[in-house]
Amino acid sequence: MGSTTPVLALPYPTPDDTVDVPRDVQALAAKLDGMSSLRPPLVSALPGSPVDGQEIYYLADAANGIIWHLRYRAASPNPTKWEYIGGQALSSAIGAGGATNSNTPQTSGQASLTVPLTGGYDFEIAARIRNEAAGANTMAATLFMGSTASFRLELVASGQFDGGHASLRRRAAPNAGTVMTLRYSSDSSLQSTFSELMIYATPVNVG
Description:
Mean pLDDT: 88
Shape: elongated
């Protein structure tokens, strides 16, 4: 085959070529198989000059093998235009947690994770919460975005109470490098115990 397409240089036969279907199909298949542009690359940083429809695999957490499949959509209304296609969520879990009778969110025994890219994320928080005494108490696990309280999972009890696992999912838009922490508090003088604190972060659009 002596002719090729103008953009991808894919070979194809012309009327003057000899007829050899296996040869021609093999030549086309070999050309396609060698094109790395058809296989999204694995990267640890977003491309500097993306084009519409470009896809990548982003290494979000090398230590735990977390990879996100992202696609760039130029027409996205969001300022961060790499849209999440698939992959595992980032996560952080603390089994022990701690106990408090303070309404100040505790920084000891908190779960935390750092977001690698600026953008919109779905965050899910979960905790096992127990009221240790027979009295009215409002107990909360609060997700902080840096130093700012983002949203909180709250349980209200009027007596000794074991809340088991409870979870809440909300969207937030942190900047790259922001540390997300899950802290716990008790809104009365009664002691509450928190354990199995968990944060999950799934990107929606990043950039």
